[in-house]
Amino acid sequence: MWAGRVLHAALSRAPRESRAQSALAQLRGILEEELESIRGAGTWKSERVITSRQGPHIHVDGAPGGIINFCANNYLGLSSHPEVIQAGLRTLKEFGAGLSSVRFICGTQSIHKDLEAKIARFHQREDAILYPSCFDANTGLFEALLTSEDAVLSDELNHASIIDGIRLCKAHKYRYRHLDMADLEAKLQEAQKHRLRLVATDGAFSMDGDIAPLQEICRLASQYGALVFVDESHATGFLGATGRGTDELLGVMDQVTIINSTLGKALGGASGGYTTGPGALVSLLRQRARPYLFSNSLPPAAVGCASKALDLLMESNAIVQSMAAKTLRLGHKPWVTSMSIRSGCDCSTVPQLPVTPSSCPQIPQSDGGCWLHHLRSQSPHLPCDAG
Ligand SMILES: Cc1ncc(COP(=O)(O)O)c(C=O)c1O
User: What domain of life (predicted)?
Assistant: First the structure.
């Protein structure tokens, strides 16, 4: 009787197991084919393993000696700044490794509130809300803010996270040609029928270092009754006279309604993102933004690092000025002039170096004794030889 039941169970398991195995074999086949197509398209992304802290000089597995690192977004060198590290350690010790909770359940500490207030002060906005990343800030914003009655107008080269955020929302979508103000105006005219219009753009586009023409965007927005959203991930901390960003650089701080940015680049480089803008918008995001509501709080060490980075920038303008001076100096090096260092309008502060790894030159020993191993590569989804 018992043996019969075991035999029956084994027999009925056999076809199930073999179906599971064939599903797995099918999956492996599909994955291999997909991976091969990525290799074939020349868009395979391999990762170098850094064995030191992030910084201008780093050590990389398999590369003897140091190399000069141009591809991090560590614009101000704060990722390894001693005071930033100390602040991270202090908050780690005092507030622990993490909250094991989302913000609204039991994941808000005094340091989160302090950092949000500091971010709002830094950008001269009413309030700010933290996210685990700027990717999350971008995927949280549009869906929470815009309905099917509204419209969003987006630069075609906006960051992937803005594109994904817009995909998630029900608003009518208009994509205007990169930096093309005539096209934006045409789209704004088309979008007049909607309740709200939100123009969304990167402040500084990381791949080519383009700066969004915010004065013109704000002028058009005001003419057609639209709001302006800017992702300042590649501007916060260093663009503009005091590093407030593209809106400061172009004199439109009072005209940009919403800013999203990252703590994972110039502001210490740990991780985290935020939205800053009108108080009521921030309140709505705390109620509705899904990456805020359903993801763990920012770890205290990351909060401490970002908070110290902001302190350093608000106490003095020395770091911002030093970066601008270094960019100018670098631009005069003979081995750099063959690459384009983009200047942020009339002040040269964006060291964006769009070259492919295969075209990397070698830096002479006199310029630091390091090999320039890899500059910022082109957009990771484009083949190496694309445009
Ligand atoms: C323009 C822009 N927005 C958002 C992000 C995402 O930032 P985070 O790393 O904080 O998710 C990036 C990161 O590369 C970016 O370049």
Answer: Eukaryota
Mean pLDDT computed over 255-276? 98
Q: 287 with 356, same domain? A: no
If asked whether residues 362 and 213 sit together in one domain, one would say no
Active-site residue 271, yes or no?
no
Torsion of CA 184, 186, 188, 194, to 10 degrees: -140
Residues 170 and 137 grouped into a single domain: yes
Q: Please tell me whether residues 97 and 217 are part of one structural domain.
A: yes
The model's pTM is 0.87
Domain boundary among 295, 315, 335: 315
For ligand 1, is residue 264 a contact (CB within 6 Å)? yes
How far is the centre of ligand 1, averaged over its atoms, from the C-alpha of 312 (Å)? Answer: 22
Atom of ligand 1 nearest to the CA of 138: 4
Which residue, chain included where needed, has tokens 């030093």? 322
pLDDT single digits (tens) 373-385: 334 433 444 433 3
pLDDT at 63: 83
* Largest Cα span, the chain: 89
Domain range for 107 is 79-315
| Residue linked to tokens 């630069």 | 155
E strand or H helix at 4, and its extent?
helix 2-40
C-alpha 96, offset from chain centre: 26
CA-closest candidate to residue 267, choices 234, 229, 231, 315? 234
Crossing angle of helices 134-145 and 279-288, in 10° steps, is 100
> In this predicted model, which residue has the larger pLDDT, 303 or 20?
303
233 lines ligand 1 (CB under 6 A): yes
pLDDT at residue 17 above 90? Answer: no
Query: Do 107 and 234 fall into the same domain?
Result: yes
Q: Is the CB of 231 under 6 A from ligand 1?
A: yes
Write the pLDDT tens digit of every residue in 28-49. 999 999 999 999 999 999 888 9
Q: Is residue 49 part of a domain?
A: no
Q: Do 271 and 200 share a domain, yes or no? A: yes
Report the separation in Å between the CA atom of 368 and the middle of ligand 1, taken as the mean of its atom positions: 30
> Span 55-76, mean pLDDT?
88
Q: What is the pLDDT of residue 2?
A: 67
234 has catalytic annotation: yes
